[in-house]
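Help needed: design a sequence for this.
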């Protein structure tokens, strides 16, 4: 098989495989639609946006869709829609992107972190119940890297304790959980539509719900230009200026991309699914690697395979660190990095920073007790960075190219013994606060 590239051998990868991973896919029709809006000077209008959100909501069989300037804003609005306010506790997985729960703090609520399930990387239903108190109002679910969370168990708990559920679908566009779309289980769902995500329209986000009050509260919160649509009396009293003090209107150039993408995304996703299934089937034959995807025949799917990952089991490679393993892969020409999102409960913002000058850490400013999660309290979230790594996400199916990239993995795995000698181990923590921006 040849000497490992990291030890001076030849690179396994000769082709420019990243061409097959290039994202987002921009078509001529998108360009034309964007130009049309630009030429009209209609960037801040909302007609096309309304058309797009109607189509997106229809796709999901949901009553209401409301576009936002990004996914973070859609989550913020959804939380306001759910009436999260002073002292309300919201349970969220610690291992996720910060936007899943950080807006809770600006509403005066309290974030309570739960651990994740090691297999799915989503909130662990077994770790929810112990966090429920009489202040708990909602659970935030993230279908992490497109792997649907265990919605059967989560909805059962929500029902039992009368809790609201917000699905953060920023990773899970068109992902099915046991045959039903993620984003249609909870009371409300929010999707990031930024350029790196599986449904990229530029900067943008969308909130979906079947609940009129959630929808109208979201309008009142950050969409003053639509206040005439509001029908509920207590909201009608304050139309004209946004209650949140936010302006969350999406740029219509993004909606223009969306209106075209919605017609073609299923075809794109089919190709991604075909390519990634082929690739992952190959990778799963190797010791040390188990790709992150729902079991076959579970009727659960990964949609656009956002942020594709694999689990790494170093025991199967005599303890070779994931750091060294990924270094060797990168030397062969594969973009592979250890880690995923860092555990939020250990970030200073969720420990001791006084954001709003209350004279105490914001994370506990409205809580009865000190609810801060201590080091070691959420062990899976704290250690998962050393157990998963990113794998290439093919958006075009090409057997030869995929096999070539697989060949690099195979080469590293087969020669792992040569890597043990100079293995310096892993740093104390691995991961990033954002998946696409490495800090
Ligand atoms: C990207 C992302 C968001 C926020 O979306 P933006 O469009 O970037 O504001 C929220 N939650 C998760 C899990 C994300 O990955």
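Sure. Designed sequence:
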């Amino acid at each position: 098989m040849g000497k490992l590239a990291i030890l001076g051998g030849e690179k396994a990868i000769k082709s420019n495989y990243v061409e097959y991973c290039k994202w987002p896919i921009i078509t001529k029709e998108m360009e034309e639609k964007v130009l049309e809006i630009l030429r009209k000077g209609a960037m801040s209008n909302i007609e096309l946006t309304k058309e797009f959100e109607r189509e997106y909501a229809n796709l999901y069989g949901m009553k209401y869709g409301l576009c936002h300037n990004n996914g973070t804003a859609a989550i913020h609005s959804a939380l306001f829609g759910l009436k999260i306010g002073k002292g309300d506790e919201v349970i969220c997985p610690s291992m996720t992107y910060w936007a899943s729960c950080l807006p809770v703090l600006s509403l005066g609520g309290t974030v309570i972190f739960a651990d994740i399930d090691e297999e799915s990387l989503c909130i662990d239903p077994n770790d929810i119940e112990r966090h429920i108190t009489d202040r708990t109002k909602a659970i935030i679910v993230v279908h992490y890297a497109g792997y649907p969370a265990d919605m059967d168990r989560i909805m059962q708990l929500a029902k039992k304790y009368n809790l609201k559920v917000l699905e953060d679908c920023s990773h899970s566009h068109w992902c099915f959980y046991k045959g039903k779309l993620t984003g249609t289980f909870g009371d409300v769902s929010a999707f990031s539509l930024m350029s790196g995500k599986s449904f990229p329209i530029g900067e943008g986000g969308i909130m979906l719900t079947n609940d009129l009050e959630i929808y109208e509260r979201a309008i009142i919160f950050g969409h003053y230009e639509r206040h005439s649509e509001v029908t509920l009396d207590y909201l009608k009293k304050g139309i004209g200026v946004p209650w949140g003090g936010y302006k969350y209107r999406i740029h219509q150039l993004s909606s223009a991309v969306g209106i075209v993408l919605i017609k073609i995304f299923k075809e794109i996703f089919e190709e991604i699914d075909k390519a990634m299934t082929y690739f992952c089937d190959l990778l799963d034959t190797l010791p040390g690697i188990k790709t992150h995807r729902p079991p076959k025949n579970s009727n659960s799917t990964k949609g656009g395979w956002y942020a594709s990952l694999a689990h790494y089991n170093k025991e199967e490679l005599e303890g070779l660190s994931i750091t060294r393993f990924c270094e060797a892969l990168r030397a062969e020409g594969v973009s592979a990095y250890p880690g995923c999102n860092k555990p939020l409960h250990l970030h200073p913002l969720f420990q001791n920073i006084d954001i709003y000058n209350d004279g105490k850490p914001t994370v506990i400013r409205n809580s009865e007790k000190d609810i801060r999660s201590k080091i070691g309290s959420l062990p899976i979230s704290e250690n998962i960075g050393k157990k998963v790594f990113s794998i290439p996400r093919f958006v075009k199916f090409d057997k030869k190219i995929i096999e070539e990239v697989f060949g690099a993995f195979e080469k590293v795995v087969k020669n792992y013994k040569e890597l043990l000698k100079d293995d310096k181990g892993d740093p104390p923590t691995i991961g990033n606060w954002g998946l696409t921006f490495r800090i």
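The chain has a mean pLDDT of 97.
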